[in-house]
DNA sequence: GCGTTGCGAAACTCAACCGTATCGAAATAT
DNA sequence: ATATTTCGATACGGTTGAGTTTCGCAACGC
């Protein structure tokens, strides 16, 4: 009875290729970023694109959802630095980064997953929230909370509603617009100014 | 050369069954409302559910997307009456109806289509916007505009941003929440009060 | 009655993809 | 060297659904 628990050299045969693993995950992400929904995503297509045999995929993940979850987990979400002096400036930066990201197709399509496939793939949606949404939400919450603490914002401000208004307004513009082209460049400023007006003493 | 333009009795043979047509459209809508994505929606399943032959479907629509577009077009979106005296009351009603609708799975799933399939099915998304989103947006815009005109809101209010903040905040709460259960019942009031604070003289 | 057209049902071909199995080659530990 | 495991490739049976065709019957105008 040899213990399998610890130990470094635990491989009797040929070790699994990290390169193949990365190629698979990249292929999956790329295809999602190109607009392929999770439903249409096929293992065969991923294998072909990654230059890998189907066996290599099935040896690691038992189904499509597991693979996609792992793939999403590798996505790093760079959060803007929110260390400016004023709440307004931090909010403008935050909204600006949101607006920037909607120009990257990758981000757009990943957001679509979070929004649309959440009904059918709860695991996936939860994982996504954990990775992409939560840290940002914390960052924005901190900005607003600091504003309340410092007196720059009123003490009775409902932080959750304020966050929803700011984030929701930007999302609304970028996702529900009839015409995506005519977004004004100063949108972050306009949203920040209008909403913060109601939050100041 | 007989003109085919006008005329009532233009049917040589058996007329097409309106009942069958309605059954097909209903079946498609029901399946979408139950969570079936457009991609997984199969003509065969629609035919079976509607109790019609595939022939009957292909005789009317050449592909799935055309059918879904037509199906969405039959959806009537009941818009709340916004004739209260105050802007606040109208906004609360509007947000309240939004919150209500997210409890109907039908509405949720249809919203998902608008949000998620918009990349892959542009026709569909456009049609949906025309039917479901635009009238509501007009209703809310009218409420805010009337508030500005009557002096209840400031003259320099950015109506578009205000709409985005109100609608976006509610959407954010209902769609991006970690935990969907703990939505406070007075959410419409809280959102309205907080945001309208910044819009008043 | 007759020609025409729509109807539901069923059968068909064709393609995609799933998940598994098999193969010879390659990579590693002992 | 040998045993073991992974590799990519390929093939396989099975399922699903698209889109077409055929069939016998029903509904309509004339």
From TrEMBL, chains A, B:
It comes from the Bacteria. The lineage of its organism: Bacteria, Bacillati, Actinomycetota, Actinomycetes, Streptosporangiales. This is TetR/AcrR family transcriptional regulator. It comes from Sphaerisporangium flaviroseum. Residues 42-61 bind DNA. It holds the Pfam family TetR_N. Residues 18-79 form the HTH tetR-type domain. The keyword Cell membrane does not apply. Keywords: DNA-binding, Transcription, Transcription regulation. The keyword Protease does not apply. InterPro entries: DNA-bd_HTH_TetR-type_CS (IPR023772), Homeodomain-like_sf (IPR009057), HTH-type_TetR-like_transc_reg (IPR050109), HTH_TetR (IPR001647), Tet_transcr_reg_TetR-rel_C_sf (IPR036271), TetR_C (IPR011075). Gene3D superfamilies: Homeodomain-like, Tetracycline Repressor, domain 2.
């Amino acid at each position: 009875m040899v213990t399998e628990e610890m130990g470094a050299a635990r491989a009797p045969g040929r070790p699994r290729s990290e390169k193949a693993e990365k190629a698979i995950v990249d292929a999956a992400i790329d295809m999602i970023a190109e607009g392929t929904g999770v439903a249409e995503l096929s293992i065969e297509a991923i294998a072909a694109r990654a230059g890998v045999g189907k066996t290599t995929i099935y040896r690691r993940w038992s189904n499509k959802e597991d693979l996609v979850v792992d793939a999403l987990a590798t996505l790093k979400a760079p959060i803007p630095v929110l260390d400016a002096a004023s709440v307004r400036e931090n909010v403008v930066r935050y909204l600006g980064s949101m607006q920037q990201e909607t120009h990257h197709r990758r981000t757009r399509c990943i957001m679509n997953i979070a929004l649309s496939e959440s009904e059918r793939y709860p695991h996936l949606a939860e994982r996504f929230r954990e990775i992409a949404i939560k840290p940002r939400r914390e960052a924005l919450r901190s900005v607003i909370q600091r504003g309340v603490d410092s007196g720059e914002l009123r003490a009775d401000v409902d932080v959750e509603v304020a966050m929803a208004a700011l984030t929701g307004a930007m999302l609304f513009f970028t996702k529900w617009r009839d015409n995506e082209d005519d977004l004004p460049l100063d949108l972050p400023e306009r949203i920040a100014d209008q909403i913060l007006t109601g939050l100041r003493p």
